[in-house]
Amino acid sequence: MPTKITVVGAGHVGATTAQRIAELGIANEVALIDIIEGMPKGKALDLWEAAPVLGYDTRLAGGTEYGMIDGSDIVIVTAGLPRKPGMSRDDLLKKNTEIVQGVAREIEARCPGAIVLVVSNPLDVMSYVMLKTTGFDRKRVIGMAGVLDTARFRSFIALELDVSVRDVSAFVLGGHGDSMVPLPRYSTVAGIPLPHLLSEERIEALVDRTRKGGGEIVELLGSGSAFYAPSAAVVEMAEAIIRNRNRILPCAAWLQGEYGLSDVFVGVPVKLGVGGIKEIVEIELTGEEKKALHASAAHVKETMSKLDL
Ligand code: APR
To answer: Least enclosed by CB within 10 Å: which of 18, 215, 259, 307?
Structure first.
């Protein structure tokens, strides 16, 4: 059956996501939606004109009409405002809540069977807005944070040890941003746990850089926020679902008792395949790790409590 992916928000993250989907060949059709007249149509056309050179058959269409999202198997939501220098993710809260609510209503009405991957920040809270507004099963509303955070951690470990990123595997739990919880003992290089390879101080420095990874890019860019790594991360999740890979990836999931937490989106390892989240993987945590995870969840809940949904 043909696969259709909609990307809502045709800005930096959205357009790069559409490009990666086409180049990876994971969908027959991509719809790119934005509120700005002309822009999504122009980007989709530009991407389609690259198809003969790159050899993909993915049909891309862009526009401002939500009718374009009908029949989508996956909807990737990147609509919103990006962070500006000095701005926290929570500052974006009010504006992006309205935007995500509007998008959620369209998804519910037009493609009620779709799986929704949320990228808009503040991520964990926007995932909640999406879940609450669509009323979808929690298997089908998934936030993209952990794959990006682990990618950042892996990229820094690879640089530090001068090894291929392919041999580096990392583990990050918790909320996106400053409250993320990287787990060095579950992070490995060719199967060797990180604490065997690096001093505690060096690991802490890499963890710290990972935590502030988004902010580092924001400062360097001067305007806008990261988009190459975020788009790669959400496309990895979409690919796992479409190809039913049963990948174990860290994603923001709505917890119902797992890890002793309920009614909150928190980054945890999940099994991703057809239908979305097949399983939430629970692992043993030390007392300290559990405390950090619960503190991260408390931070998300605190932001959620500012919303009036
Ligand atoms: N429907 C569709 N698109 C919208 C809507 C809406 N209601 N509101 C805003 N947009 C569009 C904007 O017009 C813009 O083109 O969302 C796009 C966002 O693109 P950028 O400003 O380039 O932001 P980007 O860097 O792509 O980040 C998007 O992802 O990582 C997060 O924090 C980031 O929340 C932000 C989101």
So the answer is: 307
